[in-house]
TrEMBL record:
Belongs to the 'GDSL' lipolytic enzyme family. Transmembrane segments: none annotated. The keyword Hydrolase applies. GO terms for molecular function: hydrolase activity, acting on ester bonds. InterPro entries: GDSL, SGNH_hydro_sf, SGNH_plant_lipase-like. It comes from Ananas comosus (Pineapple). This is GDSL esterase/lipase At5g45910-like. Residues 1-21 form the signal peptide. Gene3D superfamilies: SGNH hydrolase. Keywords: Glycoprotein, Hydrolase, Signal.
């Protein structure tokens, strides 16, 4: 009986850790609010930041941690899958970063502040850090991870890099300030070039296995569906998403895949993986039951019962007047622009084994 119990315990452990032999020294993550694990909150949760207030973090951590979800994120599940500790925010002091660090920070953009100033939006965004700044933060950590250039290349060559997603905030800023999706599409080449340059810089430092996610279908987000609702059914696709906004996401992802293909050809010894956020999110909308979702279009935490999506910009999650659903695991959207822990878990599985990462992270 004892042997049977130990066998079952091992099986459960295997299922949780995915039972594979592939391993990494560390995971290094870059990104925005989709992957920030606390960089904006390393000195405490600011009262002005709604995502740092309850009920954020309630599902797993039982408190707000700076994560924009009810619990763990993709980068957390990746760390658990490879037997690594949850990545500490890179700005946290006194942390050991040899098994990984997370440079992602809420509000991060691909492009720096000067770009937004050049298009007349300098006073319309709050930029916690651009992609280039995050790469600089990573370089500053290297002395605590490795001792020489060759030592770094050896160590980083056996680590997993997750670069993004990036682009979401670059497009959110002009879209939320009145620019049309068609006009914003003009920024796609600049954004994608910046992502490509950052990936190439990391490869130069020693990165070999690099996951680069595309952006999500923003036309399916409750915040977009509420703020840009249309009386014309022709503006919506068969999933109930706004077509022009999803076209922008598709344009970005198509350009990003082309850029990554060129990098892969240039650096044949690397493994550059395109993670397809867009397709998996659409699949979760189309087949919610297969993921355990019963409310794929509604917000779990927000203005319960208001409008078609439980979303109200004046009663966002973490604000007075908002509330959280009883079972976040049955929802895809946590707060209207970020996913639930359950959705992050599903995305991770799609990246590890495919089909939503090309090639899949697991060899």
């Amino acid at each position: 009986m004892k042997l049977l119990f130990l066998g079952l315990l091992f099986l459960l452990s295997c299922l949780f850790s995915l039972c594979f032999s592939q391993s990494y020294n560390a995971i290094f993550s870059f990104g925005d609010s989709i992957s920030d694990t606390g960089n904006l909150c390393v000195n405490g949760n600011p009262s002005w930041l709604t995502t740092a207030q309850p009920p954020y973090g309630e599902t797993f951590f039982s408190r707000p941690t700076g994560r924009c979800s009810d619990g763990r994120l993709v980068v957390d599940f990746l760390a658990e899958a490879f037997g690594l500790p949850l990545l500490p925010p890179s700005k946290a002091s006194g942390k050991d970063f040899r098994q990984g660090a997370n440079m992602a920070i809420i509000g991060a953009t691909t492009l720096d502040a000067s770009f937004f100033q050049s298009i007349g939006l300098g006073d319309k965004i709050w930029n916690s850090g651009s992609l280039d700044q995050e790469v600089q933060w990573f370089q500053q950590l290297l002395s605590s991870i490795c001792t020489s250039s060759q030592d770094c290349k050896d160590y980083l060559g056996k680590s997993l890099f997750v670069v993004g997603e990036f682009g979401g905030n670059d497009y959110n800023a002009p879209l939320f300030n009145g620019r049309s999706p068609d006009a914003v599409s003009a920024y796609v080449p600049t954004v994608v070039d910046s992502i490509s340059n950052a990936v190439e810089k990391l490869i130069g430092l020693g990165a070999v296995d690099v996951v680069v996610p595309g952006i999500l279908p923003i036309g399916c987000f409750p915040i977009y569906l509420t703020l840009f609702q249309s009386s014309s059914q022709g503006d919506y696709d068969q999933n109930g998403c706004l077509k022009k906004f999803n076209d922008l996401s598709s344009n970005h992802n198509s350009a990003l895949k082309q850029a990554l293909s060129k990098l892969q050809s240039k650096y044949s010894s690397t493994r550059i993986m395109y993670a397809d956020f867009y397709s998996q999110y659409i699949h979760m909308l189309q087949s919610p039951q297969s993921y355990g979702f019963s409310n794929p279009m509604k917000v779990c935490c927000g203005a319960s019962g208001q409008g078609s999506y439980n979303y109200n910009n004046n009663a966002r999650c973490g604000m007075q007047g908002s509330s959280a659903c009883a079972d976040p695991s049955s929802y895809l959207s946590w707060d209207g622009i970020h996913m639930t822990e359950a959705a992050h878990r599903a995305v991770t599985n799609g990246w590890l084994r495919g089909p939503y990462c090309n090639p899949a992270i697991l060899r």
